[in-house]
Amino acid sequence: MESVNLFRGYGKVSPHLEDQNPHQQKSASKRRILILSILSILLLTLIVGLALAALIHESNTEPDESPYLSSANSAESIKTVCDMTLYPSSCFTSISSLNISTKPDPEAIFKLSLQVSIRELKNLSSLLTSLNYVDSQAAMKDCMSQFDDSLSKLNDSLLAMEVGPGEKMLTLEKVNEIQTWISAAMTDQDTCIDGLEEMGSKFLDDIKAKMERSEHFLSISLAIIAKMQALLEKFDLKMH
């Protein structure tokens, strides 16, 4: 009898399922699909959000690859270069006063030092031209000629560093040439003084004092270019 009852009960559904008509079963299936769809969308949104957050964090924490330094780091770079000269304070103040964003390397800083040297030599030439050194007219005329020659050499040095995209501002050959040109510019100023001494000018000391500033900046540029190899090593760079 038990086997007959078991056979008779086979294939029957539960009373709960029997209570649901096909329409209700279809609605329940749709709700399950809707819930799963919503959960899938929420999960996808969460994954995308986490990915974006990771990218933003990575972008904010990566070091700045810009070729230009922040003002603080730029000042530190200029100080490092200027400390190699005889007049570090004058060097730092003059180059910083240009207020020009510069690359973090000695080459760019040297280029700025050349601009300062040219500016100071022009100022000196204008000043001495405006003053009336009565007893030294012939010698002063020679001095103006020497100053013009000095400016020409400094401008040649600056021009040598004007290069096209992808080219290097300084090579060993250029360094040697520029060093020679700046040395010659300093010799021009010495020649001016020698001429004034030969003339026995009573304004000699006054003129020497006015030339001192220009001489200091020429010395700064010369020191930087002469020690370019050592400076590049300080910045983990190499001569091209």
Automatic annotation (TrEMBL):
SUPFAM superfamilies: Plant invertase/pectin methylesterase inhibitor. Gene3D superfamilies: Invertase/pectin methylesterase inhibitor family protein. SMART domains: PMEI (SM00856). Residues 73-224 form the Pectinesterase inhibitor domain. It is an enzyme of class 3 (hydrolase). It comes from the Eukaryota. The keyword Glycoprotein applies. Pfam families: PMEI. The chain crosses the membrane at residues 33-56. Keywords: Disulfide bond, Glycoprotein, Membrane, Signal, Transmembrane, Transmembrane helix. InterPro entries: Invertase/methylesterase_inhib, Pectinesterase_inhib_dom, PME_Inhibitor. Coiled coil: none annotated. Its EC number is 3.1.1.11. GO terms for molecular function: enzyme inhibitor activity; pectinesterase activity. In the C-terminal section; belongs to the pectinesterase family. PANTHER family: PECTINESTERASE 1-LIKE (PTHR31080:SF303), PECTINESTERASE INHIBITOR-LIKE (PTHR31080). This is pectinesterase. The lineage of its organism: Eukaryota, Viridiplantae, Streptophyta, Embryophyta, Tracheophyta.
